[in-house]
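FAQ: What does a ligand-bound record look like?

Like this one, built around zinc ion:
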Amino acid sequence: MNHQYSKIINKFHSALPVINGWIDQLIESNKEKSTPVIDLNFSRINQIFPKKLLEKAKVVIVPNKIPFPPLSQMGLAELSGIEQMPIAGITFKDTFFVNQNILTQSLHFHELIHVVQWERLGADNFLLAYGVGLIQFGYEQSPLEEMAYSLQKDFAKGTVPDGIVDIIYQKTDAIWNQIRPLVSQ
Ligand SMILES: [Zn+2]
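The answer part, i.e. the structure of the complex:
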């Protein structure tokens, strides 16, 4: 990690309360519009994920732009490139937002991976791990995304391994072990 990176990571640390507040407010203001994933009756997803998780995870269908924290306004101009990226879905804590034109089971599967990652890491550590992954590797190669895309490929092939939650926990722990030394203050 060079000096420039560590400067951004320090700024990211300072911005965590603001990002968390923005996320909580977004979830709160969409509560009425959210549906537990279990109610969508996805045949394959229901077989892969535990019922408890599908009752907890909620989805909000969005007509146009997927909500994204205004990072440049939060003092994180370095990461503002991602704000402009067209995205099909995004997960904040146990709630994910998907574009109404892309309501595939595969996209819901992908976002559920992130729900488990959020649960495992907790909000601050998820945001740090995600942010550092973005800074280091870019969007698709960032480790938490790479995991979600890789399992999504398994989903397409019908080869998702049994015990997916434990597998996500293990992979997430391994990612965190790499990132923790970079973000510890
Ligand atoms: Zn993703």
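Follow-up question: can I read anything off the structure? Yes, for example: The first strand starts at residue 35 and ends at 36.
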